[in-house]
Amino acid sequence: MTSKIIGVGNYIPPETITNLFFDKHNFINKSGESLKESNAIIASKLKDITGIEERRYASNDQVTSDLGFIAAQAAIKNSGIDPETLDYIIFAHNFGDVRFGTVQSDAVPSLASRVKHLLKIKNNFCVAYDVLFGCPGWIEGVIQANAFIKSGIAKRCLVIGAETLSRVVDIHDRDSMIYADGAGAAILEVTNDDMGVKSHVSASFTLNEKDYLYFGKSYNNEKCPDTKYIKMEGRKIYEFALSNVPLAMKKCLDESGYSVSQLDKIIIHQANEKMDEAIVKRFYQLYDTPMPEHIMPMVIQKLGNSSVATIPSLLTMILQDELDAHEINDGDVVLFASVGAGMNVNAFVYKF
């Protein structure tokens, strides 16, 4: 017995933010000094490294739970289920609801509770809770839902990943250009078929790596002395990811019983195009085999990095035939993987 995905949905916010949006920003470094390069050059280098040309921002009247609700509605419609039959709603995010123009996070009640309320679910035994696990939060939610289902605690779970990172970025930090908003969701159901979750792995590296991603002060101490924003040690994260994510992916695949030649797709957190390519190449090097073409779909170029939303959003796009050159068919074996704040790494193998 395991769990299978019976419905998916996403919400891609309507506002497209191109790199030109940042042309008038005053980017400064940790020491408070203005960067010497022009913003056009900074944006060009960002595109070369991350692949990001544009990203999506939520409308000013939306918050993270709103995005998650829309994605959840889409997943429910796609599955054809009655939402009253859900046993769990698991909502992965990291910053709660941050309203436009404010800096305060609101996560009480939980975002999962807010979505359950918006879905008008009357069943009190549908349990709603949140997961804070960095960018790998949605995968961790799937792993938890699968555990509930395999143990007999649940038969059907809704797992949401949503974030509005545009509300927690330091406008004086060039890394703010990476982040985006979005939401994705999936419904998992008990199955005795051959499809479904085949293996999974999770790890938290906290001894030396805890603060590679953190909430820190603005680089502009004069204008923003007390407010904190998402910050990262980019080089350290890159080196960490290349060292640890391929090994976790290999461990997960080996435990699934499938060989690397049987993999049809790798859906990886859309964090950085070059980093993701390097991770997947190194993963295949562990098997002494070259990385196949079209194994790794990427949408970061147009959608940016929306944290927990990247993987379920991308999965939905593939399953709904919205990506050229990428499809998932019955019987395909797919490896999902992510890395993010914590520092957390996780993965699962799934047969469609």
Describe the structure.
With 352 residues, the protein is α/β, with parallel strands linked by helices. 29% of the residues lie in helices and 25% in strands. The protein contains eight helices and 13 strands. The chain has helices at residues 39-50, 64-79, 111-118, 137-151, 234-256, 273-285, 300-303, 310-319; strands spanning 2-11, 15-18, 54-57, 88-92, 127-131, 156-164, 181-191, 196-204, 213-217, 228-232, 263-268, 333-340, 344-351. Strands 1-7-6-4-5 form a five-stranded mixed sheet, sandwiched between helices. α2 (64-79) crosses α3 (111-118) and α5 packs across α6 (273-285).
Features:
29% helix; single chain; alpha/beta; five-stranded mixed beta sheet; 13 strands; 352 residues; four-stranded mixed beta sheet
Strand fraction: 25-35%
The largest sheet is:
5 strands, mixed
Helix count equals 8
Helix content: 25-40%
**Widest sheet: strand ordering:** 1-7-6-4-5
Terminal Cα separation, in Å?
A: 15 Å
Helix and strand element order: EEHEHEHEHEEEEEHEHHHEE
Tertiary shape? globular
Total strands:
13
Structural class: alpha/beta
| Average of the residue pLDDT scores | 95
What radius of gyration results from the CA coordinates? Answer: 20 Å
Low-confidence stretches: none
Task: Give the topology, please.
Elements: E1 2-11, E2 15-18, H1 39-50, E3 54-57, H2 64-79, E4 88-92, H3 111-118, E5 127-131, H4 137-151, E6 156-164, E7 181-191, E8 196-204, E9 213-217, E10 228-232, H5 234-256, E11 263-268, H6 273-285, H7 300-303, H8 310-319, E12 333-340, E13 344-351
Parallel strand pairs: 4-5, 4-6, 11-12
Antiparallel strand pairs: 1-7, 2-3, 6-7, 8-13, 9-10, 12-13
Helix pairs in contact: 2-3, 5-6
